[in-house]
UniProtKB/TrEMBL annotation:
Biological source species: Fictibacillus marinisediminis
Protein keywords: Glutamine amidotransferase
Protein family (similarity comment): Belongs to the peptidase C56 family.
Alphabetized Pfam families for the sequence: DJ-1_PfpI (PF01965)
Gene3D superfamilies given in the database record: 3.40.50.880
Family annotation (CDD domains): GATase1_PfpI_like
Protein name: Type 1 glutamine amidotransferase
Length: 178
C-alpha cells in the first residue's frame, strides 16, 4: 500500500458535503494512509448536509500540524464555519509553509482564502465561489481537478475520482502533470 507511512488530517464541521468528506477519507485509507478527523470538539458527532455522521478524533486545538503529511478540507457549508477558527487557519498556513499536500473541494476554497494563501495559485472550486477565489488572487480554472504544486483542488462530487487520485499521487510523490 503506497500510502502506508502517511498521516492525513481532515477537517470537519456541521453541514460538510457528505461525499466530499467521506470519499477521500475512504480512498486514502484503502491506500494505507491514516486519516484523522479534527473538529471544534474531540469526540463530537458532526452531521453532513444529507445526514451522514462523522465523529472527530480530536479538536482543532489538540492538533500539531507537524504530525501530519497532508490536509483535506471538505466542501459543503462547513468551510464557512471552519474558516472562523484561528487554529484552523494556523493549520492550513503550516501546511502551506511546509509545502505539504492540501486538498480542497467545492466551497473548501473559503478556508484557503481566509488563510491568505491563494495569491497566484492555480485552483478550481465550485463555480459559486469563483469570484471569491479570483478576488483572493487565485487563477481559477473550470476543470475537474487542478494541481498547483502541493495544492490539489476540485469542483464538486462528480469530480471526486480524479481529485482523490491526484491528491493520493501528490501525497505519494508520484504525480505527473498530464
Amino acid at each position: 500500500m503506497r500510502l502506508a507511512d502517511k498521516k492525513v488530517l481532515s477537517l470537519v464541521h456541521h453541514e460538510f458535503e457528505d461525499l466530499e468528506l467521506w470519499y477521500p477519507i475512504l480512498r486514502l485509507r484503502e491506500e494505507g494512509a491514516q486519516v484523522d478527523l479534527a473538529g471544534e470538539k474531540a469526540g463530537e458527532t458532526y452531521k453532513g448536509k444529507y445526514g451522514v455522521p462523522a465523529e472527530s478524533d480530536s479538536s482543532f486545538d489538540e492538533i500539531d500540524p507537524s504530525d501530519y503529511d497532508a490536509l483535506l478540507v471538505p466542501g459543503g457549508w462547513a468551510p464557512d464555519k471552519l474558516r472562523r477558527f484561528s487554529k484552523v487557519i494556523e493549520i492550513v498556513q503550516h501546511m502551506e509553509t511546509h509545502k505539504k499536500p492540501i486538498g480542497q473541494i467545492c466551497h473548501a476554497g473559503w478556508v484557503l482564502i481566509s488563510a491568505k494563501m491563494l495569491q497566484g495559485k492555480k485552483v478550481t472550486s465550485t463555480p459559486g465561489i469563483k469570484d471569491d477565489m479570483e478576488n483572493a488572487g487565485a487563477v481559477w480554472l473550470d476543470e475537474a481537478v487542478v494541481v498547483d504544486g502541493h495544492l490539489v483542488s476540485s469542483r464538486r462530487p462528480p469530480d471526486l475520482p480524479p481529485y482523490v487520485k491526484a491528491f493520493a499521487d501528490v501525497l505519494a510523490g508520484e504525480y505527473n502533470e498530464q
